[in-house]
Amino acid sequence: MTYEELAFGDGDPDREPWLRSWMAAHVRLLIASLAVAGLAGAGGWYLYERSWLPQPPPDIALSPSFEFEVAMCGCDGLPATTVEQRQEAEAMLRAMPQVTSVEVRSGEERADQWRRSHRGIGDTERAQLASSRSGDVLHGVLRRAEDFPAIVEKMRSAPRVSNVYRSGVNFWAGRAEARISLCGQDFISQNAPECRRSKRAGATGTVTEEEKAAVVARLRDLPGVETIYFQDSGHALKLVKLSYPDYKPDGPLPGSLYVKFSDPALARAITPAIEPLPGVRAVEPVLPEE
């Protein structure tokens, strides 16, 4: 008895086995089906790999910041601002028609926020530096974005004011818990010890594509990493110009990776895991909306 007789119970040599006949008639369909299945598997893996690549920043409408801050002196080695001096500066701001509101934020509240934010990304070393950030701050809102120079000019005559600055647009609040500042060609990067140690013969210290890929690969291993974004120089400059329209950088702003965790508590693992890697200047917390 032949194999075909066992399979089909038919020993008639004049009849072509059913399976052979069906396969002959449908061979092209079988090949096409196998090809589609292979492409589907490869495409699924490609999409999986792509999902782990750094994504561009979310495409949302941007608007300039109307907020600013007046920092009262709480500098080390100098007398702290008195309550009366802070109240005088506050009264000066409230009397200005360019200002819609003023809020006093104590130095201790800001120091506590600094501690909590850095502990939240596992940076216990910088969390301990909060004691030097003890000056009170007057947080104001402008009527128009272009009114900021008038605030700077007025506060020059205020007692015990250490600095006046625009509050940057907090684009990443709620979209990420941590920022990884990469070494670039800017002045800060070129003088940062974390970037200078990456310099090799003929190298600039700027993060390489291989180093950036190694950072992303390490992030993949951290529990709870949900999304990794890459902010390039162009997007960083766009955010800066929302607060400082006349700002002209000396060179391209450094790129940064922003990391969103499924559970913000898991962000505590990021600083010890990422900060020692070549090409990384700093790991910093993304502050929440105030």
From TrEMBL:
<dbReference type="Pfam" id="PF18075">
    <property type="entry name" value="FtsX_ECD"/>
</dbReference>
<protein>
    <recommendedName>
        <fullName>FtsX extracellular domain-containing protein</fullName>
    </recommendedName>
</protein>
<feature type="transmembrane region" description="Helical">
    <location>
        <begin position="29"/>
        <end position="48"/>
    </location>
</feature>
<dbReference type="InterPro" id="IPR040690">
    <property type="entry name" value="FtsX_ECD"/>
</dbReference>
<keyword id="KW-0812">Transmembrane</keyword>
<keyword id="KW-0472">Membrane</keyword>
<keyword id="KW-1133">Transmembrane helix</keyword>
<feature type="domain" description="FtsX extracellular">
    <location>
        <begin position="206"/>
        <end position="283"/>
    </location>
</feature>
